[in-house]
């Protein structure tokens, strides 16, 4: 009996680790691709300077592609602000949120480094580092980033909420990113994503006013989470359930509640169950 319990516990830990490691790799890969294509569209080539519309469309399409690829593996956060919003909304545990943000920052840095390596030296210049326009104050910049991220996170919640919609959220989230860039480029170059700003800043070592691209998006994300989860579409989670999700024990309980499969032919249903565990995030 004791050996059976140990075997079951070992199996549950292995399954949970497999799910989490897959999710972290998905966040790393998705953020890296997002930065590579997004920042790449903003590089100032002498023969054809990028237009605002070109940059907005590229970020739009890149977002749609990576969300389609990774949203069932990790929830396709690709953004520390989105991860914080899910944490505030009791939809992800604190340990998983910290791991997600680390994977996102690492992915953004890797994506920026790859882009930097393949870009000619005379084209790099500021390398897509977010900067505040000279006529825009820091307070205005923070406010703009707050509002841009607010609408993005609200769109993410609405697009991924099983109570509201089904299917892939790729197109709607991509459109939300494009809307933000059509306005935000004039003010701050449009971040809405601390990881996107972090990747470029690390590679070229330029962190002037970098705090704006954390404070604005993170504040907007928290407000969006509160508005969506407690005003627009409040859920019925109790305080005990929220604490269980926050500490990560809810994930373990959900895995333990799954009956072990007796046949390998049922592996597809196991994958679906593990995706549901992952979607605590």
UniProtKB/TrEMBL annotation:
Catalytically driven reaction(s): H2O(in) = H2O(out)
Gene3D superfamilies membership: Glycerol uptake facilitator protein
Similarity section: Belongs to the MIP/aquaporin (TC 1.A.8) family.
Molecular function terms from GO: nitrate transmembrane transporter activity; water channel activity
Record's keyword terms, sorted: Cell membrane, Membrane, Repeat, Transmembrane, Transmembrane helix, Transport
Name used for this protein in its record: Aquaporin-6
GO biological process: carbon dioxide transport
Organism, as annotated: Physeter macrocephalus (Sperm whale)
CDD domains documented for this protein: MIP (cd00333)
Location within or outside the cell: Cell membrane
Region (Disordered): 254-281
Membrane topology field: Multi-pass membrane protein
């Amino acid at each position: 009996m004791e050996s059976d319990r140990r075997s079951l516990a070992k199996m549950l830990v292995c399954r949970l680790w497999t799910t989490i490691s897959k999710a972290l790799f998905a966040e790393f890969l998705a953020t890296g691709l997002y930065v590579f294509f997004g920042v790449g569209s903003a590089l100032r080539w002498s023969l054809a300077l990028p237009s605002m519309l070109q940059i907005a469309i590229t970020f739009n399409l890149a977002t749609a592609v990576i969300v389609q690829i990774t949203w069932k593996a990790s929830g396709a956060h690709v953004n520390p602000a989105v991860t914080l919003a899910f944490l505030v909304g009791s939809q992800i545990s604190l340990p998983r949120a910290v791991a997600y943000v680390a994977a996102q920052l690492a992915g953004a840095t890797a994506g920026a480094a790859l882009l930097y390596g393949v870009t000619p030296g005379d084209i790099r210049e500021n390398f897509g580092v977010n900067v505040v326009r000279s006529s825009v104050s820091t307070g205005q910049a923070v406010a703009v980033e707050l509002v841009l991220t607010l609408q993005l996170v609200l769109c993410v919640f609405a697009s991924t909420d099983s109570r509201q919609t089904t299917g892939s959220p790729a197109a709607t989230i991509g459109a939300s990113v494009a809307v933000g860039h059509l306005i935000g480029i004039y003010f701050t170059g449009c971040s809405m994503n601390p990881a996107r700003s972090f990747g470029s800043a690390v590679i070229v070592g330029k962190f002037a006013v970098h705090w704006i691209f954390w404070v604005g998006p993170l504040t907007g994300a928290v407000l969006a989470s509160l508005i969506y989860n407690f005003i627009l579409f409040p859920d019925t989670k109790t305080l005990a359930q929220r604490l269980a999700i926050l500490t990560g024990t809810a994930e373990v309980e959900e895995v333990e509640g799954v009956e072990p499969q007796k046949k390998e032919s049922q592996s597809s249903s196991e994958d679906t169950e593990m995706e549901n565990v992952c979607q605590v995030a």
